[in-house]
Amino acid sequence: MNELLASKPESLREKLDNLPTQTGVYKHVDGSGTVLYVGKAKNLRSRVRSYYQNSRNHSRRIDVMVRKAVDVEVIVTDTEVEALILENNLIKEHQPRYNVNLRDDKTYPYICIKNERFPRVFKTRKRKQDGSKYFGPYTDVGQMNKMMDAIRSVFQLRTCSLKLDPEPIEAGKYDVCLQYHIDNCKGPCVGEQSHEDYMQTIDQVEKLLNGHTQELIDLLDDEMEKQSSKLNFEEAARLRDQISALEKYSQRQKIVSQDNADRDVFALHVDREEGVGCAVKFTVREGKMIGRRHTYVRRIEGRSEEEILLSFVEKYYTEANFFPDEVLLSVDPNDHPAQDTHALEQLLQREKGKQVVVKVPQRGDKASLIRMAKSNAKLLVGEWKTQQMKRERDRIPEAVKSLKKNLQMEALPRRIDGIDISHLGGTETVASCVVFTDGTPRKSEYRTYKIRTTEEGRPDDFKAMREVIQRRYSKIVEENGPWPDLLVVDGGKGQLSSAVQVLKEVEAYGKFQVIGIAKRLEEVFMPEDTDPVLIAKDDVALQLLQKVRNEAHRFAVTYQRKRRKKKTLHSELLDIHGIGPKTARDLLSRFGSVAKVKDAPEEEIAEVVGPAKAETVRSYFDKEAAEST
């Protein structure tokens, strides 16, 4: 690994190893999420990886950019032409610092029809979400300027920025300007042109900007004939040049913008094994793709692709503020008996004000858009899986990693079982098994065992260990899991030997590592090794083993105490006819012990359990006292 790559985050190095070999666009991003550079490539993997090779002779500008970059985002496309278009749109959107063609902050202009009562028509390089209409972008600024000149001279639209509301116009607050006197404006500011007439003119301008140039050419041609008949040859020549420019522009528009529709493209990729899907939306405006949006979908079990995609689309449009002419989907919800697009179509029609086509294209350019969106959805699912694996590795505690190293295990001990035996002078022998996952207790998987094979009053920890091992792991063998990575038994060589012997008998030995930990010197023993494993006292690995051992001991002792308490309760109170566990608990809670219940007056007992049961309890203990004397 070279020095440059070594300095980069592991997530970036992993992404570079898993880049697709398809055509597409890439973005270098810094630590704050700012896009530093946008580029296109025929082979994304080859091109992007070349930035991080020391042998490449990059310019200083690119070298600085690469050293700042901490992430790379890619969008795959079907063709190099699509990559070129997308690259240009993304550059205009993000204006990355290290793209050469934006160092002077240039971007292609639009013609704007402003959202006003008497709309102005002007050129701009910035698009605002204010209800205005934008046409373009125009790569030939000279031709666009000639178009603007033609619009002004033929349609006589206002160029002032006055707020032409009805009240100030009727009050006569405005005076006509020079544009009115030279016949470039019809004077809507003084009421010389009605709002209805002005908006009809705007409709004609929109037709022109959408490629309907013949009407304008005819108007110019008529005007040119009039000027020529008046012997105004200079003006006629100017109009002739405008007609020529419009004809060239018209031919060019037909080639570049054969389909000038606004459309949204939705596609889905689902990975059933991982239980995740990714829905992708491509935003196409005026025939040009200007952006991508995606959402990961979880809890997909039992849900069809039609249902998942339709949910994503409906949620998107309930929050949207722009509605396209057409919506393309990768699957047809109407093919699923429980899904249909009727509600979606109604929503779109209501918000758009006209019918919006929703369909699943099967061939042609629209089907190519769907394929490209699906490719990106699949790529994003792959990236999600890579990130999940990285997070999985990152969340493993250092103690687990250290334990693997100290015990020389092949796999990380992510699931650890801990077993302990507890008794009181050989009576009430019990066992516990606790479970730790990634160093954290999983109390829902704790288990306790009442030992059946030992004799009362004769403690035998080895025999008890053999019993609990046999009961627990014969069941795991039968059910084929869940297997631990490591079993920790409380004790030294003797306890470990007992555990190993039974594991072999139930055919579980060898499926996981087993060790013993002795309390006195905190020594760790492994099967078939005579000497203990030396783990430093301050090593987090030993601390984890102690934590498992101590938790197993605590849980076993707790269980044993519960059993003793239950036995005491049974022998003293539950022998009374008509007294159940709840009544016994209420009495002990009030008086604190059976002895105090024996000494309590019947009236006090009645306050807890009522007169009838109080009489029963009092009669039982009075009879017991009489018999003992």
UniProtKB/TrEMBL annotation:
Keywords: Coiled coil, Cytoplasm, DNA damage, DNA excision, DNA repair, Excision nuclease, SOS response. GO terms for molecular function: DNA binding; excinuclease ABC activity. It is found in: Cytoplasm. It comes from the Bacteria. SMART domains: GIYc. Residues 214-249 form the UVR domain. Residues 21-100 form the GIY-YIG domain. GO terms for cellular component: cytoplasm; excinuclease repair complex. Its main location: cytoplasm. GO terms for biological process: nucleotide-excision repair; SOS response. Residues 273-503 form the UvrC family homology region profile domain. Residues 195-237 form a coiled coil. Interacts with UvrB in an incision complex. Belongs to the UvrC family. PANTHER family: UVRABC SYSTEM PROTEIN C, UVRC/OXIDOREDUCTASE. This is UvrABC system protein C. It comes from Longibacter salinarum. The lineage of its organism: Bacteria, Pseudomonadati, Rhodothermota, Rhodothermia, Rhodothermales. The gene is uvrC.
